[in-house]
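Task: encode each sequence below as structure tokens.

Item 1
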Amino acid sequence: MILDLDIGNTLSKWRLKDADSSEIRSRGAVWTREEWRPGADIPDLDVVESVRISSVARKAVLAQTVALLRDRVGAVHVARSVPEALGVTNGYEEPGRLGVDRWMGVLAGYQLAGGCCSVDCGSAITMDFVLPGGRHLGGYILPGLRLMKESLKLGTRNVAIDPDSEADELLEPGVRTVEAVNHGIYMAAVSAVNRVYSEVCDQQGVALPLLVTGGDARVVSRGIQAPHAIWPDMVYGGLEACFPLTAAERAGRMSGAPTVPRPVTLEKIRAGLAFSMLL
């Protein structure tokens, strides 16, 4: 078995993948912590042959995790943000300072769609752009839905936005404080994603495919106007592309990769931008 780990600042997601069939056998999540110990909430390491890790947690958390796994597992692969990989040139002035989860998303998106915009809706909402030739432009970091709600300190943080809510409903004025907060932060998030995507496509003269991942991907995606695909395993896809361990991965097939929708034309993007500026 292959254990894939996506260690975030608050949540660590994992999945077990069959090394022979490339099938996903199980998956789960635990709270990120300083001391990562085997228990009921993590997979049985006795069946694991190799581990791949993407981590944005503190260095101490990653070091402790790697030490534990290397004591139990034969091969441990740790992803790093580097100046160039898999045909993509990192757009950061200091490439190592780009969050590795963002870098994994960029690499996965490029392998799947060529140039693209990758959007990760987690604690923060990140947007990264890579052009068809492989030049990563850099990106944007916005506060995520939960972070925006916590910043308001109005006692509504524990009432989450229903991911099955329709976008039209979430964009209406709230008639209770919790609704006003939820609808306000939703409006801020989706408006920012829509505007940033359109502005960058306009500036670069290219209509890019758009891929969305992260814990709040389902709800945010309902308000994204451009054609897009949700890819829950996009960070894992980057790990597969960087460290291919199965026959399917070596052939370039990434687990759970969606069908990429054709983007609208650049002319329509520019017309939408022009209209919004008149309002």
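Item 2
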Amino acid sequence: MQTATPAPRKAARPRADALRNRERIVVAAREMFVEHGPDVPLDEIARRAGVGNATVYRNFPDRDSLVREVVCSVMDRTARAAELALAESGDAFAALERFVHAAADERISALCPMVSSTFDQHHPDLEAARERVERLVAEVMDRARSAGQLRPDVGVGDLMIAVSQLSRPPAGTECPQGDRFVHRHLQLFLDGLRAPARSRLPGTAVTMEDLRPPRD
């Protein structure tokens, strides 16, 4: 007598409400990291997300996993903004401008203290998100450069440093007050990227490799 071999079970898909709760946690964490830094209590994040503490810990067993998810989420949204810029068929520099302003709205500057924290900066998810952003931003810049609109002596690192620094409120000011000037100052920076260049930049173009944390 043969025993029937049980069919392999499919992995259960997360329920829709579970996925919504996870997204609410990530959005709330992103907002609070921007406002208060990466050390904000997880209980406060749960309160803003409208979920219980257990729901937060069920999705993110420790702070590092939540910080990493927020960083990857912001990078993914930044990558989608670059994809939208690449999909445009009009003025290449105007597409670059729209990408830069969209990246600033993602508060990419808030990533800096989080990426420099103690969690694994070389986690595969983080590296994949980072590489996707770098590749897409390079393509956006290459299109504007090929059109003769972007000065040739700037790199992806130059652009991302400027977006990060200009979207960060000055020391001693509150975030909402600094937000009033972000897009104004970004536009001043973008005007300086236009070709032909009116001056020679000191040093060499900054690449993302220059900014990448060293491996142990």
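Check on item 2: Residues 63-87 form the longest helix (25 residues). The two ends are 59 Å apart (CA to CA).
End of task.
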